[in-house]
Each structure stands twice: as structure tokens, then as C-alpha cells.
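User
Here is a favour to ask of a fellow structure person. I am asking you to supply a protein in sequence and C-alpha cell form. Please set it down just below, with no commentary around it:

Assistant
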Amino acid sequence: MGEMARASLARGGRVVGVIPKMLVERKLALRTATELIVTADMHERKATMARRADAFIALPGGFGTFEEIAEAIAFRQLDLHAKPCVLVNTNDYYAPLIEQFERAFRLHFAREAHRRTYAVARSALEALELVEREIRGG
């Protein structure tokens, strides 16, 4: 996340960092962010990001990324939000996770109607196009 934020700032982009106090204390905060929001803990961090987000896009990442996108998809399934959720499947990074989702559909652990709770993109640009299209209703 840090590399992406720094690259965005270097190109004149706006970066909002949302970080729990414990990570600030570990000196992991990007102090050059356009806006830096410090939260009490990880739960408050996720709630803050969810409130402020127009969409949820998961680039390849680790356990935190898996957990955050799974929560966003599950909350959409429960109609707690209607924001787009997109997995950016660069170099088939998310192929095993997507296959697990497909397995859940095949074995009837997930309803077919919930296929639309997430989308898969091959690139970040395609993810943005998917989000834009969904937000516009097309």
C-alpha cells in the first residue's frame, strides 16, 4: 500500500491514509499522505474506510487484503452496502480464491444471486472501468 500511495503522490494524486494508532506507534504511517486519519484500532480503521469508500478494489495482497475484500463482499451480500467489490486478478493471483468462490456456488454454499456481489478484473484499469460502469448503473 505504501508503494502505491507514494507513487500516487509523486504523480500529483490525493492519498487518504487510514491507520490504527498501534501502527503509527510502529512508525508505519505515511506522513506525506494528503490526509492521515488515525483510528483507535483495526476495527475502527475498516469502518472508517468502508464509510468513505465508493467501491472496494483488491489488488494482489496478503492476509489483510483477503480479510478486507471478503468482508466487503459478505457485507454486500447482506445488503449492508451496495458498493462495487472487485478483485484485480493480475497474473491469476486470485485464481485459487475465485475457484473457491465457484466451488461454493457449485456446492450450494452460496446462492447464484450472489455472483453479482463481486467482479473480477485483469488489471487496475479494468477494475476502475467496472466500478465506474456499476456506479453509473450500466
In short: Residues 63-77 form the longest helix (15 residues). Residues 1-52 form one domain. The two ends are 30 Å apart (CA to CA). The first strand starts at residue 16 and ends at 20.
